[in-house]
Amino acid sequence: MSYYGNPGRGGGGGGHHHHHHHRDRDTTPNTPINNTSEEDAAQDAAERNLFRRCIDYHTPATIDITNRLYTKACRTSHVRNLPYLQPHSSYLRHMGMPLGTVGAPNPSMAYVTYLAHVTRAKNSTPVTCLSWTPGGRRLLTGNQEGEFTLWDGITFSFELIMSAHDTSFRSMAWSHNRNYLLTSDAGGNIKYWSPSIAPVQSIDSHAGNAIHAMSFSPNDTKFVSCGDDATLRIWDWATHSEERVLEGHGWDVKTCQWHPRSSLIGSGSKDNLIKLWDPRTGNCLSTLYGHKNTVTKIAWNDNGNWLVTASRDQLIKLYDIRAMKELVSLKGHHKEVTSIAWHPLFESVLASGGMDGTLLFWNLGGKGSDEPVTRVPYAHDMAIWDMQWHPAGHMLATGSNDRQTKFWARNRLGSSAGLQQDAMDEKDDEVQTAEIELGNHVGIVIGRRGATIISMQRATGTKMYVDQVRRVLLIQGTERQIDTVKKRVGALLDRVTNEERRDNNTFPSM
C-alpha cells in the first residue's frame, strides 16, 4: 500500500536516469568522475533514508485487529463458540493500546497535544480558515490573500496553492453529502467548489461586507450565511438565490450554524447576543444573553441538544437547548476565544483556541469538568483563527495569524510533549524583571517582523520588550527563565559581533 511506501523517493525512475548518466560520462575521455559519483552515491543513500514524519491512521495494528475474528464468550449468546466479526470500525478507536492508561500524564486519545507537524509555506500570510477534505486525505487552508493551500493529511507535505478569492478568506463549509464546498471572503463574495476544487459558482452578497460563516441545512438544499451587515441570509442551494434575510442582530454577525437535524439556526454577533432563528419563517425564536462581549464562534454538538458559544469575554458557554439554560461556563482562556471545535467521535470533548495562541481541551457532559483537561500554552504565537478535527478524530489541525498551520496528534505513551509541565510548576516562583544592554543590535533581537523576539518569548515563557531609545531588552519572568533568556540573547549577540569582526578583517577599511 502506498502509505507504507517511502514518500521521499520519487519511484524508480530517478535511479535509472542516474545510471545512463554515468555511462555517458565514463565514455568521454579525461573526465574526473570520481568525486561526482561519490556525491551521487551519497545523494542516493540520503534519499533511501529519507522518511518524512507522518501520522498514518491506517496502521498495520488497526488493519490486523479488523481482520481478526474472535469468539464471543457470552452466556446469553444463542450460538456459542462461533467466530464473530469485530465490532464496527468506529469503535476500534475506543480500544486503548495495552498499557495505554498507565503512567501517562495525559493518557486519553482525545486530547491531541503532540505537535506532529508545522507547515511552512513560502511568502505566507495569516491562515484565516481551514477544512479537511471529505475523508480527511488532505487539509485545505484559506489565507489572508484569498489563496487556497492544500496539504497532505498523512505526510503533511505541501500539495498545491491556488488563488480563490480577491480578498481575505473568511470561512469554508462542506455540504453534508460532501459534494460541494462553500467559501466566503471579506468582500461579500460566496463561491461554490466541486470536491476537486474546481470553481462552480460565484455570488456577491451582504452588500460587500465580510461574510464570516456559512452552514448547510441538514438536507443540503439550503444554506445560511452571516456577515458584517448585521444580517443572516438563507439561500436556495440549487438556484443560487437568496430566499430570506434574517434581521434582528444590532451589529456584525460573526458566526452562524444550522442545527445538524432540525429547522433551526444559531447565530452570534458583535452585539454580545446569541440568537436562534426559524429559517422557514425568518423569525427569531429566542435570544441568549450570556456573554459580555462579541460572540466569536458557536457550534452545535452532534447530539443536537448542546450549543457551545465562545466570546471575546474569554468565556466558553455550553447551553442545553431543550431547557434553554446554560449548563456550564468555562474559564480557561486569558485572552478572547477565537475558535472552537467539537470532537467528531467523543460527544463531550471540545477543543478551543485563543487570541494568544493557547490551545485548550475540555471534557464536558456527565463526568466533565469546568477546568480544561489539558492545555498547550504556546500552541501558536498569535490568534488561532480556525481549527478542525480530522474526521477520524485522531488529529486536530489549527490555522493561525502567525502564518502557520499545525497538525496536532496524540502523545506517545508516557510522553508529556507539548504540555510544558515545567512552566506550570514554576507558577509559584515570583516574577522579576531584568534588562540586557543591546547596543547597536536592537534590530537583530527583534528580528524580521518581530519573529525572533516572539519565538524567544514563546520558548522561555517570559514577557519581553525592547526599549529602542535606551537600547535595552526588558524581561519579565522567574529567575530561571531570565537566566535562560540572558544565555540566549548573549549567544545571539556574541554570534553577531564575531561575524562583524570577521567581516571587518576580510575587508580592511580603506
Automatic annotation (TrEMBL):
Keyword RNA-binding: yes
Taxonomic superkingdom: Eukaryota
Biological processes per GO annotation: mRNA 3'-end processing
GO terms assigned for molecular function: RNA binding
Region (Disordered): 1-45
Keywords, sorted A to Z: RNA-binding, WD repeat
K Homology domain: residues covered: 428-494
Keyword RNA-binding recorded: yes
InterPro entries: KH_dom (IPR004087), KH_dom_type_1 (IPR004088), Pfs2-like (IPR045245), WD40_repeat_CS (IPR019775), WD40_rpt (IPR001680)
N-terminal signal peptide: none
GO cellular component, one term: mRNA cleavage and polyadenylation specificity factor complex
Intervals holding WD repeats: 120-152, 162-194, 209-245, 246-287, 288-329, 330-364, 377-408
One Pfam family of this chain: KH_1
Stretches of the chain forming a coiled coil according to its record: none
Protein name: WD repeat-containing protein
PROSITE patterns: KH_TYPE_1, WD_REPEATS_1, WD_REPEATS_2, WD_REPEATS_REGION
Organism: Nitzschia inconspicua
